[in-house]
Every structure is written in structure tokens, then in C-alpha cells.
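Hey, sorry to bother you again with one of my protein questions. I've been puzzling over a protein and I'd love to understand its fold better. Take your time with it, there's no hurry, and the full record follows here:
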Amino acid sequence: MNHISANKLRKDIRRHYFQIGAIFLINAAILLISSGDWNWLWVWIYLLIYPVYTVINSVLLPGDLLAERGRSKQDLKTWDTTLSKIGILPGIAIPLIAGLDHRWGWSPDYGTILHLAGLFFYLTGNIIVTWSMYANRYFSTFVRIQSDREHTVATGGPYRIVRHPGYVGILLNTLFTPLILGSFWALVPAAVMAILYILRTHFEDQTLQQELQGYADYATHVRYRLIPLLW
């Protein structure tokens, strides 16, 4: 049984890395083909973050968490799969519009400082997401109560500040990607993605309060979902 479980764990981890690789290749293809510029410095800086971030996470995060993120899941919420499907379009539109913007010069050239500001906040988002995953071994790609893994409430690290710190990091990633790539127009689909993540935060919080033992009590102590003193 332990041998079977170990094999399944390795299989799910490999699937997780395959998913990351597929996302990387899709983003790279969209950006490079739409821009028509293989010498675009900022796109290579942006793309380099993917493998570096993946290596860091593979060192810091436990194998069972990586496996959970790659595992095929059956007990998913309808609202979660619906939001994920809706998010495919703006998710593709961000690199597509950024690439076309670079090709045709729709946005003004705003200089290195704003590119670096976008990179700073994007990396900050990555740090927050990794910190959240490190503090919460049940951090999954889809919302589900992980009874098979004896799901408990995460209360340490960034979860002492807000209830959904992972989404804070993801929102920073989403909103500052266009700035790295020099595209104001790509902020439009990025804003749509941000709205979808905020909706997901709302529904996920409701689900956890209703279905995860101890979460409602935790929510009385950590009052805010994403932004202290606001929401």
C-alpha cells in the first residue's frame, strides 16, 4: 500500500510540473508569436521567473502539497470550475494583447523604472504565494475540502494577517504582469482576471465557513479576506 501511495505521489507531482511546463510554453508562444520579437528583453525576464520560481518551490514545499496541486480532482464546486473556465479567455488575452501592443506600439514607452516597478510587485506576489503555500499544506489549485488529507485550518504565517493571502499574491502577479511587459492595454483583461479572483475569494470563504471545521471561528479572529481594514 505504501509503495502504491508513493508511486501515486510521484505521478501527481510529475503532473503538477507538466501543468507548469504547459502554462509556461503557452505563455511563451503567445508572447513571442504575437510580438514577433525574439529579442524582447522584458518578455525573457518575465519568462525566466517561471523556472526559477518552480525550482524554489520544489525545494521549499512538501511533496504532498505539490502532489495535491497536480492531482486529478473529482469533488469540485460548480462555481469554481465555472470561474476557472471563464478565466481562460482573459488569461490568454493578457499575453496576447501585451505581445500585439509591443508589436504595434499601442502603449507609450514609459521607461525602465515602471518595468522594474512591475517586476518588483510581481516578485512580491510570488513571494506571498510561496509563503502562503508553505504555511498551508492544503493550498490547492481548486477549492475542495480535503477530507482525504485530514484538512485543517491554516492559521500561521500570512494567515494571521488575512484569510486568503494566496489570492493577494496572485492579484499582484495578475495586475503587474502588464507593467513588466510595457502594456497599458493588457491591464484590461488583467482587471477582468482580478475581478474573477475576488469573486473566487468570496465564494471560497463562504464554502470554508460552511464546510471546514474550525474555519468560522478562525474568521472571527482574522476578520479580513484580502486587505486589512477594508475587506
In short: The chain has a mean pLDDT of 93. The chain has one domain: 2-221. The two ends are 45 Å apart (CA to CA). Residues 2-221 form a domain with the Four Helix Bundle (Hemerythrin (Met), subunit A) fold (CATH 1.20.120.1630).
